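Researcher: Let's run the pair from yesterday's discussion. Sequence first, then tokens, for each.
Model: Starting with the first of the pair.
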Amino acid sequence: MEVNFNKIDDLNATLTVALSKTDYTEKIDKELKKHQKTVAIKGFRVGTAPLGMIKSMYGKGILAEEINRLASRGLYDYLKENNIDILAQPIESENVKSVVDIENGENFLFAFDLGLAPTFELNISEKDTLDKYIIAIDDSEVDKEIEQLAVRNGDTENVEVAEEKDLIYGTISELNESNEVLEGGILDKTISLTPELITDAATKNLLIGVTKGSILTVDIFELFNNNQSVISSSLGIAKEAVNDLFKNFKLTITEITRRKPAAINQELFDKVMGAGIANSEEEFRIKVKENIQNYYQNESEHQIEHMLTHLLSDKHDVKLPDSFLKRWLIASKEKSYNQENIDERYAQESNTLKEVLIREKIAAKYGLKVEMEDIEQASIGYTLSMFRNYGLQNPDFEFVKKFSDDSLKKEEHVQQMNDIAVRRKVYDKLKEIITYKEIPISIEDFYKAIQAHNEEHKH
């Protein structure tokens, strides 16, 4: 076996593995004899078929399997022995032609293109300064949260006339240019919506005050705020088909429901916080305020991490083997990537990969290692966050842990939590290094600051 490595530039290389007959003959002969002893062929007892017949029947397949195994071993042994760090997986070379003629050849050449991992220096220090927002929570925010908790935990009742926050159910049918039901179009599709969430004032006002049994003509795009994903999901059609819809639809109101707020009493306290956590309205308000403070503290931390990501990106010019990676994505993930969409989708892929490379560099420099305990903690935090998104503010810890432990039995979840744990360790380390400028701020101004930051970093 002969392996040759040709470095084209700092980010690309071609590696060839040449195999001659002496590299594989002994192994092929052993495999043929093994087959001879075990394969049943009509007209022969097991183990008595002529070796020539076995070779004729199975030789090419055994040869193909063996030379591919040898080529792969030669490739990865060379990379390991020479400490060559690559991105993604090697792919068939477009620079050097492979020579693999199973039918007639005895000598074979496997050629691979490689994407090399970039080299760069870390550039982060205490001279780097980020804003840290200290968010003030006043009594009006506590009042608003308690009101929302009462509504979320109240009973549902049917009403005849819709108000802004009611949930409206109906069936919807596509209309043609003459405002008649379109033959072959969307017909009597059941949907639900809330006027409060509609951004178009005319469409919102059309639904406020509507009664059960009413029939309206609505603009499907205004109804769902021109969100293609929501439209496709609500109508049960492919996202690509949304733009082909006629805009006018007939909406027939079938039901209107309203949340009746729960009473502010011990039953609500226990339902929201858990039994025995808050035993009076004053204690309930204290706990609600703590939850709000924790939420906005987490929001502030998330914003710091978001700004850290941009800081790292801005201060590290990480080059990638872009052409190679695009080829690899198309070849390895053909359901998601093709020549038509690769340029658009690669932009996000490359940004994510750069972030990962920078984090790995930081983890290596400071000796940050992830243990199983870190993965378990990440999973518990992830599970808690998921439950809270579903309205469970103080779920029982044992229930959360059991759910987390069950999730950790899945390899995909473990990998996801490992990535979260690495990110957490890296960002915790970065927070020790950089300098903070604390800024007291209201909730409203906090979100304005986030919006301004996002506008600044639009690509």
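Model: Moving on to the second of the pair.
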Amino acid sequence: MRQQSPTSWAIISVCIAAVVHFALGFAIEFSVDEAHYALYAQHLAWSYFDHPPLVGWLQWPLVVITSSEGVIRLIPELLWIISCLLVYQVTIAVHHYIQGRNAGYLTSALPSANTCGLMAVLTIIAAPIPHVLAIGLLPDTLLAPLSLGLMLMTLRWLSNDHFKLSDWLITGVLLGLAGLSKYTAAFTALAVLVVFLSAPRKPWISKLGFWIALIVALLMISPVLYWNWANDWISFKYQLAHGSGSAWLWRRLAAYVGIQILVYGPLLVLGAYLFVKHCIHGTKLSLLALLGFFVIPFAIFTSLAGGGGLPHWTTPAWFCLAPFAGIGLAKAWSTQHRRLIQVLLISQIVLCCLGFAYVLSGGISTAAVKSNPIADLYGWKAAGQKAAELAQAKKVTGIAVHNWTLGSRAAWYARPIPVFILDDRQDQFDLWSGQLPQGANVLLLNWSGMSFSSPIGKNVGFEHCEALDTLEIQRFGQILSKFDFSLCSNWQGPRRTD
């Protein structure tokens, strides 16, 4: 490793991971979320039921010209690379800030900024779940580089007494883009405010640039506010209900914390601990405030986790923790405390490689098909094409599924055939396709991984359903799942009034 500089090794490591992402991106079909956000691009709007619009707007050019999953996935891959580069840059900025604000033994004990940057990048590459977001575009994939960009701007503000108007404009644009990415960008905006408030004096309040940045951010998110105003604020109502989850339980909280450590890796946790232990003493309050980019969103999501939560929600926060973890690990490495770091790094990379192989293999099936989570990534393209052919042949109103998670893949791979959701939960499909008309005939698609009985009966479903065909999905000789296609006639189900 001594033959290359830390910067070179950071670039080499990112490129190797990017090649793996690129290969996987062309090898597997869309997940439920990817298909859902690709449909955003197909149905351009000012905003959407469950998320702001940037995740759809950004994909629109590629969705217009291609339906290739691998090509569309170049967007999250590019965002992941940008995030890694920003992690490196933020680490160097934090290192310089510490060097400029502290004196004595601490500054002399810190390794070079480039070494710290390399360590920070390695913590991200060795973390399992960021690879998922590097292949599939989610709002969190967008929010990660934007949060790091805002963190870099706040560091520039802390280190520079002359924050230019252009700097304020960049900050406002980043805040606006973050707001267009995900509603939880409010936590990142709060972290920015905490850093500003941590300074002994508050000259920014009277600066024209600050108010221009605020106006720019508000103007950029105005499409989301207008769309929600025109649609009875359904996104905010949904997010408040979704975030609160179900009944709060301590065991859910404990499980969430354990899963967080597993999917982001103990290397990040160790590095953060070492930074707090060795590098935080004698620093200004502003350095502690910078940790708010991790602490604020992580604390909020963790406190809500007792009612339920998804592990990838905290991804931007962990990216923002990586610079501090990199400095902590580099300092421990320079003092010959290397064995634990080596073991954790190698173990996590091996775990990531096993995960890649597991996905490509199609998973491991048991007697119960539902037990294989990877089965969800295979077969939907063939099933969607077959459903479209049957729907056209039978001249039905559209395709029906029981749940929106089934509807996203069906709608993407069977487009432009309309897809109707039969459950009574309000979702984005109510805005795209509306409710299934009374008396309609449809092609009912059922998947073995989330199987439902055919809804038959007056005031509850269809008058009659007739089995048409079955599609069995196999990979490397093992059965992953099965799709059933039925012709259902005369819909008599209930009409939702909301």
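Researcher: Give me one sentence on the second I can quote.
Model: The mean pLDDT is 89.
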